[in-house]
Amino acid sequence: MRTFYLSVTLLTLAGGAAAQGRARIGPVVSTISIEDGSGSHSYSSFGGAFALLTGDDGELGLAVSRYSDLSSNTCSREMTFYGVESNYYPVGPKGIAPFASSALGLAHVLDQDAGLLGICSSGAATNQIGLGFGLGVRLNLGNSGAALLEGRFFQVPNSAIQALEGRANVSFSFGKPRKTELLNGTLGPAVGLLFPLSGPFEGRGPTFGVRFRRDTKKFTTLGLQIDYAPLRVRQGCSSDCEPYAILFAPGYEASYHPAWGRLYGELGFLLAGFPSVGTDRGIAQGAQGGLGADIFSGASLMWNVNARVLWLQRNSGQNSFMVQVGVGLSPKLEPPVVAGGGH
Questions:
Q1: Pick from 108, 126, 127, 105: which is nearest to 9 by CA?
Q2: For residue 216, what are the domain limits?
Q3: Other CB atoms within 10 A of residue 51 CB
Q4: DSSP letters along 166-207, please?
Q5: What is the CATH number of the domain that holds 83?
Q6: pLDDT band with cut points at 50, 70 and 90 for residue 216
Q7: Is the domain of 80 the same as that of 218?
Q8: CB count in 10 Å sphere of residue 132
Q9: Which region among 93-97, 114-118, 138-142, 324-328 has the lowest average model confidence (pLDDT)?
Q10: Which of 2, 65, 77, 176: CA 20 to 30 A from 338?
Q11: Are 211 and 181 within 8 A, CB to CB?
């Protein structure tokens, strides 16, 4: 499973880390919310980040965060996280720039359990893999600074840390950006419905999220959709049967461009983060694929309609298959132009 997490995150990280470009460095503060049997509890952390803009589409960096107290009782729970982090900017990192984030790193965790009579165990600190993904916005402060706000799902497997986290960073910026082979990008809101095919999960309400996409010069598109998904466990569940998940779905889209828009087929990985208490708490992994269309509307907008199959594997090993049918709206993108002026 750890190899799977590594593969998915490396796939979504922006390439070209060795190239020189514009960089930033500065402090990071966050508030992290963890649920347990006594409810939801919030804690603070502090740290720092150094990141390099690898092109006009992405940023790759290193961050260290210290969580000195993550315990809701008298037992100790603390963590230091050393992470490789990536921000994907579908419309570039200038001005007010939204981004999708992913992180993978080493978590040094001390997590004591409360036993009989409230006596804490003498657990030793362990080193584990930590994984995060989410959404954010970057505000450039002239040529010498940037401020970032981000919300993400964060997990350290084999620990009690499956959480939602809000982060803030103010950085000093320097250097020059480097262009990439990617063309224009866009993003916009998306809403969908989930229908069960087989397995334990079904939707108990619409999904709400953000859809990113960016064209390449080879008539393909890099896509990503992040959704909030309310679910219901419809089989073999006696408690905590209505979890919600954060769906993180990067995909590769092969496209055809008629005059009215774009037809595409998509295939990619799928991660689902479950921050609430229950059997599914943590991350379920799988894959997703389907068909969709972007339909031009006027001079500046386009609608998206799509249907895709989602496969998730639970912590218990059970497989769940669902169909997600969705619609979205975003600024219009023209198809890439090839030599000779054709599309």
A1: 105
A2: 185-331
A3: 23
A4: EEEEEEEEES-----S---EEEEEEEEEEEEEESSEEESS-E
A5: 2.40.160.20
A6: low
A7: no
A8: 25
A9: 114-118
A10: 176
A11: no
**Residue 237: is it exposed, middle or buried by C-beta count within 10 angstroms (0-12/13-18/19+)?**
middle
Instruction: Give the number of other CB atoms < 10 A from CB of residue 121.
Output: 12
CA torsion, ordered 322, 325, 328, 333, to nearest 10 deg = 90
Same domain for 215 and 146? no
C-alpha distances in angstroms, 312 versus 3, 31, 56, 229?
17, 29, 33, 13
Say yes or no to pLDDT of 231 above 80: yes
Which residues have C-beta within 8 Å of that of residue 107, sequence separation ≥ 6? 79, 80, 81, 82, 127, 128, 129, 130, 156, 159, 161
Kindly tell me if the per-residue pLDDT of 319 is higher than 70: yes
- Band (4; pLDDT cuts 50, 70, 90): very low
pTM of the predicted model, to two decimals?
0.79
Residue among 294, 293, 296, 292 nearest 307 (CA): 292
User: Does residue 7 sit in the same domain as residue 150?
Assistant: yes
CA atoms of 8 and 29, how far apart (whole Å) = 26
> Per the structure block, which two tokens stand in for 312?
């998730």
Residue that has been written with the tokens 């514009």 in this structure: 22
How far is residue 129's CA from residue 152's CA, in Å, rounded to a whole number?
A: 16
